[in-house]
Structure formats: structure tokens, C-alpha cells
Specification:
about 260 residues; mainly alpha; DNA-binding; homodimer
DNA sequence: TGCGATCAATGGTCAAAACATTCGGCCCAC
DNA sequence: GTGGGCCGAATGTTTTGACCATTGATCGCA
């Protein structure tokens, strides 16, 4: 590349005068317009978009391109399609699992180190415990109690995927005690990453999970945040260690078989 | 609906024996297989998927359906398509903006209350400041310093969208001082929501933003986390108040014009 | 009145063709 | 020999048109 070409490239990337030449694909216009309309409040959950054939005409593009836009919007959790004469494309109510999925994907792609996730999880959980110690009602505690009891019962029977999913439920309930949707969502997202790793590396459920949780719950009921945080931190770090070992073992196993 | 029909519906929804009858659309198989392959580590960033025409044959579905799957994967930030003979569909490296976008969408859809976002933001920022006070290097501080200087200069000239985007940069740099990707990502996501609201309700940039930030930076350099947290908390709460008022004014304005 | 058949609107799928982009390689002129 | 233009192959992009499948409303008949 010549020097001037390099210059132009830098300009194209950085300057506001030269914008990068990028062929916008047809469906991107629809995607953007719908997304903006939602952001502006012009489209609200429950609202219906025009029929596919109609949108194709309105935007002046082929129906297939409209459908590609709809698939992108659907993957973003913004719309859903329903069949039949009363069907159509509707704006969805917000779905937090989209965020969990996105974060999990990031982890799958290796963009989030295990260390960062662990650290963030400890910090977030600590905050949540602190808030829960202030705000949680006896009803919140009772939900945690019931969940632990259920975990105890379930640990006696064999279980795979449902089991690890249930294990994550504890953190969801704990976060819910803060009555803050954002914190619940973030907690679920980070839990989800661990959930996936547990299923991959082979779940070796520790038997004393219920015991640890009972101790934490007791600290919570005593409104002793520091002790609860210490307990959960130790637990999370130990879990990470177990996970790393299981993953290492799995890797060796794979290397041996290939 | 008869009683037995209702029973079957409940069973179909809750039981693991009866699974809900749902017509899986063709593209969903591809979407899922690619996503699983990424989660399992069989597909890594840079890897190339078969050509569209080829995938259509492999999976036994029409090419258009393959494309719909690709659009969904693309919206999820997992793949990107490149044109030309050396093009194709490639697994992307993880892109944190997908998460920001998802969280912003949730807010747009009304699934996240402003109060929750504010509270979560204060908590998260406080944690970050605490960590930054422990870990930040002089280089990190210098970056913040430069950013504040830039903000000062920019505040003299008029600016719209770029301006508010630049205002958010401060939090990004601050979070980066923790050297934890997850915290950076979460910070960006919550900032993004406020960024959007600022642009909608009309940015009325307060002139003393730079002053507040200078004070915070001084506290950071003094490794005085508590004072920095107090300062940023006050600022964020004040910003929220201003935002709510601006939104209320905007709403009245709209009501009057219609 | 009830109920089954039919119809219409909608999303889901398929097929075929043409278009646009990119890059490697070939060939020609200098 | 070398530079530059032309061409072709592989790939994603877009269009057109047709048909299928689902769902609810409507009509007609008993």
C-alpha cells in the first residue's frame, strides 16, 4: 500500500469528512428504521408491523429482503412473527434472555476471560447481598429457603442439564431480592456463562452446595452482609477452580482420543 | 376450552414428557447448530462456514432459509459476511457492542426502569472506582486527564450526537482502568442507555461536567475511593433528575403540538 | 342453534435467475 | 521484464413468482 493510500484509509476510518465506503444492504434500512422507531417510542410492545408483502412495497425492496431484516430484528429480541390470518410481525415485550445470550456468546467467542467473569460475578453478587441484607423481606428469604430445599432433594436423584439450570436459580432468586431488574439481568447473564461451562466440562455437582447456601441464607437473615459475602466469594472461587480443573481434564481427554 | 384441553396445555408447557408443539422454522436448525458449534469450541473466530449454496445442500433447505439463519447469526454478533471470491461467512471475534445494543433495546422496550438503571449504574461505577483506586496506573489517570481536557475544549464548540458520545467515553476509560473486560462491557451498556436518552430528550450539556470530573480524578489520584464515589453518585443522580425533567418537557411539547 | 366446510390473510418455503463484488491470473503493450 | 488492463470464477445480494401451512372468520346447511 502506498503512503497516500494509507493516509486515505486512516482518513476514511477516522475523519468525519471521508466515510468508509460500505454498501449498505437493503434489509439494513428496515432493521434500522424499526429499531429507531422503537427507540423513539413510535413503536411499542404489542404494535404490529405491516405485512411482509406490504413492507416490501413500502420500502421498495423484495419480500425476501424484508424477511432478512425481520430475522435480524427477531434475533435482537425486538419482534416476533405469528402465523395465520390474525398473525403478523409484532413488537415484543423486552426479553432479558437476549442479553444473557449475547454475553454468553461473547464468552464462547473468547472475548471474556474467565478471570474477568469471576471477578465481576463476585463483585456483583457482593453488591446484591449487601442490598438484599437491607431490603429483603421474609418472603424473599422464604423463596431462597424453598429453593435450597428443592436443591437438596434434587441432588439425591440423577440429573444433567436441568440440574445445573436449577443450581443457577439460586442466584436469580437472590438477585430478585434487590427488586432491581438490571441487577437480576446481569446476574442471570454471568450465571449463564458458568452454567454453560458446567455442562460442557461435565457437571460434578458438589454435595455441599446446599450446606453453603444454608449458611449464606442464615447470614442474610441475620443481616450480616460481610459474612454472607465472604461465604459466597469463597464458594465462587472454589467453583472456578473445580471448573478449570474439569476443563483441563476434558482437554487432555480429547487430545488423547484424537 | 375444555378441562382436559387445559390440562394438556399445562402439561405441554410444563412437563418434560410433552413438549410444546412448535413448528421449528428451517433456518432455526442452522442457527442453533452454528451457535452450538461456537459454544463447543468447534468453530472459532476466523473460521469460515461453507458457502450459502453449499449449506443449502448440506442442510437440505432452500438458500433463502440459509440466508435468514445467517442474518440471525449476524444480528447476534456471531458471524459476518464478506463479498467476493475470497469472501464467505466467517465467525467473528467477540463484539461487546452487541451486548450494549441488547440492553439498550431492553430499555427502549420499557423492560428496564430508569430507577433500576440508575441504581445499577451507581453501584457498578462505585465498584469500579474502588478497584481503580487500587489498580490504576499513572497511565490510566493520564488517559482520564486527556479525556477531560478534550471534553473542556469540545464543550466550547457546538456539537450534538458526537458530543454526548464523547461524554460517555469518560466512563469507558474509567472502567478500563480496572483491566476487567466484563466491567468495561457492563459500564458501556449502562452508559449507552443514558446516551440514548440524552439524545432524545435534547442534550442540555451542563458546563461543569469537566469540573466534576477533575474533582473525581483528583480523588482517584489521591486513592480516596469514598470521596470519588460520593462525587460521582451525586453527579449521576443529578443527571438523572435533569433527564427526567427534560423528558417531561419534551412530552408536554409533543402533547401540545398534536 | 350448532357445527362443519370454505375462504382469506398471513408467515414459511422453495426455485431460478440475474446482479455485484472481489481477487487471482492471463495477456498484451511498452 | 514489468505495468496495467481484461476476464473469469467464487461468493454474497437481490429480485421475481409461485406454492404451502396456519389461523381465524364467515357462510351455509342441518
Amino acid at each position: 500500500m502506498t503512503e497516500s493510500a494509507a493516509l486515505f484509509q486512516r482518513q476514511a476510518e477516522n475523519s468525519s469528512i471521508f466515510t468508509k465506503v460500505q454498501t449498505r444492504r437493503g434489509f439494513e434500512y428496515i432493521y434500522e428504521q424499526v429499531r429507531n422507531a422503537v427507540a423513539e417510542g413510535q413503536l411499542k410492545p404489542g404494535d404490529r408491523l405491516p405485512a411482509e408483502r406490504e413492507m416490501a412495497q413500502i420500502f421498495g425492496i423484495a419480500r425476501q429482503s424484508v424477511r432478512e431484516a425481520l430475522r435480524a430484528l427477531e434475533a435482537s429480541g425486538l419482534v416476533e412473527s405469528r402465523l395465520g390470518v390474525t398473525g403478523g410481525v409484532f413488537i415484543r415485550t423486552g426479553d432479558p434472555t437476549v442479553v444473557s445470550r449475547a454475553i454468553t456468546d461473547l464468552a464462547s467467542l473468547g472475548a471474556l476471560s474467565h478471570a474477568s467473569v469471576l471477578e465481576a460475578r463476585i463483585i456483583l453478587t457482593s453488591d446484591i447481598i449487601r442490598m438484599a441484607c437491607e431490603r429483603a423481606t421474609e418472603e424473599d428469604f422464604q423463596k431462597l429457603d424453598d429453593d435450597i430445599t428443592f436443591t437438596e432433594q434434587q441432588s439425591k436423584t440423577e440429573a444433567g442439564l436441568e440440574r445445573t439450570a436449577q443450581i443457577m436459580e439460586f442466584y436469580h432468586i437472590l438477585a430478585s431480592a434487590t427488586h432491581n431488574e438490571v441487577l437480576v439481568m446481569l446476574t442471570d447473564s454471568l450465571s449463564q456463562i458458568v452454567h454453560l461451562r458446567l455442562n460442557r466440562a461435565g457437571p460434578k455437582p458438589s454435595k455441599d452446595i446446599a450446606k453453603v447456601r444454608r449458611r449464606i441464607l442464615n447470614h442474610l437473615r441475620a443481616r450480616d452482609a460481610d459474612k454472607a459475602i465472604a461465604e459466597i466469594t469463597r464458594h465462587l472461587k472454589r467453583l472456578e477452580k473445580v471448573l478449570v480443573e474439569a476443563e483441563k481434564a476434558k482437554e487432555l481427554e480429547l487430545a488423547a482420543s484424537s
